[in-house]
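Tokens for chain A. Residues wanted.
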């Protein structure tokens, strides 16, 4: 919308005046977004209390108190809020987000069959793929992309298990994407990333606590993963740098290794469990959730710096060596924790 008015300005002076206006307006617009999203989150808390939308702790949980579920609804709301103010960009992606958010919110209220969830996910992802023009690529790339996206969405959902982990990890990711968009290559409207950062900061205020006010819920983690996938794929397609997928390296390694372990144990990988490394650290090692979440964020930030440095320097091997080092460290830490747990149980 702003871009349209800029292009239609009759002369250079009008264009310059409009740019000054935009410069002054944008911070105020983000402040408005902040106020609206805080109000929306507080309103949701009232609704959740009224309709008993809560998480009750059980033997598979990493928390001990009854907590509001679905506080992550603020993530898709932020995108929907951003949409009309920035020229209705990426309409198919926003439509896909609405679909995947809707089915995820219903899933937070009551159990939905895996096949129905998958159907909605595939429709939403297909809309995003059409927007990204992925269907113009080779068929095997399209299939691999579907598998990767479904994997990322499920990993993001599985990793949302302790206070702060989704918020801190996503904050690191969006901050990195903002830096890349600002200083390396502009691949997306910057307002989208800034608005997402605002929503994550608000969520962290209520979630990054010893006793969280709310959890993201499927509506938060799944919708956030969908937006992350869109941003990463857009960046990768525009730069032809697949190495950017390592901006999800920490989540990816934990998710892949845990799935492999559970398959080896003959467990149903779609059922709740407590075998992720972050769960072992929080539950078996009794580390503060916030310490574990902050640690995940710091490690991913270091990986992100390495990825950016590798791409700028044209050294793919450096990024891959970093991934290998991270995987080795992950396995080592996991083995140490499991040995300690076995020793305690044997005592």
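Reply:
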């Amino acid at each position: 919308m702003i871009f349209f008015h800029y292009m239609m300005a009759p002369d250079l002076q009008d264009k310059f005046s409009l740019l000054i206006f935009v410069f002054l307006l944008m911070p105020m617009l983000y402040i408005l977004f902040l106020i609206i999203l805080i109000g929306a989150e507080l309103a949701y808390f009232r609704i959740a209390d009224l309709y008993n939308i809560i998480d009750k702790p059980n033997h598979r949980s990493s928390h001990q108190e009854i907590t509001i579920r679905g506080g992550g609804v603020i993530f898709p709301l932020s995108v929907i809020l951003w949409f009309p103010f920035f020229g209705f960009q990426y309409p198919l992606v926003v439509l896909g987000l609405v679909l995947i958010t809707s089915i995820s919110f219903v899933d937070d209220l009551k159990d939905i069959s895996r096949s129905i969830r998958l159907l909605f996910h595939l429709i939403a992802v297909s809309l995003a793929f059409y927007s990204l023009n992925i269907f113009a690529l080779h068929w095997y790339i399209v299939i691999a992309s579907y598998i990767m996206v479904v994997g990322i969405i499920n990993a993001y959902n599985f990793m949302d298990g302790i206070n702060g982990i989704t918020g801190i990890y996503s904050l690191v990711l969006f901050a990195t994407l903002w830096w890349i968009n600002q200083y390396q290559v502009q691949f997306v409207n910057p307002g989208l990333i800034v608005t997402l950062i605002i929503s994550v900061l608000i969520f962290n205020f209520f979630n990054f606590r010893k006793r969280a006010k709310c959890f993201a819920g499927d509506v938060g983690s799944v919708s956030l993963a969908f937006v992350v996938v869109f941003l990463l794929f857009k960046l990768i397609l525009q730069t032809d740098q697949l190495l950017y997928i390592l901006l999800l390296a920490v989540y990816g390694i934990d998710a892949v290794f845990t799935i492999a372990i559970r398959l080896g144990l003959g467990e149903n990988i779609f059922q709740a469990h407590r075998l992720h490394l972050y769960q072992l650290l929080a539950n078996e090692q009794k580390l503060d959730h916030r310490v574990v979440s902050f640690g995940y964020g710091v490690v991913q930030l270091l990986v992100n710096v390495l990825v950016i440095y590798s791409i700028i320097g044209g050294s793919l091997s450096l990024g891959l060596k970093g991934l290998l080092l991270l995987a080795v460290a992950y396995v080592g830490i996991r083995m140490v924790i499991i040995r300690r747990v076995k020793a305690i149980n044997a005592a």
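The two ends are 67 Å apart (CA to CA). The chain is about 75% helix and 0% strand.
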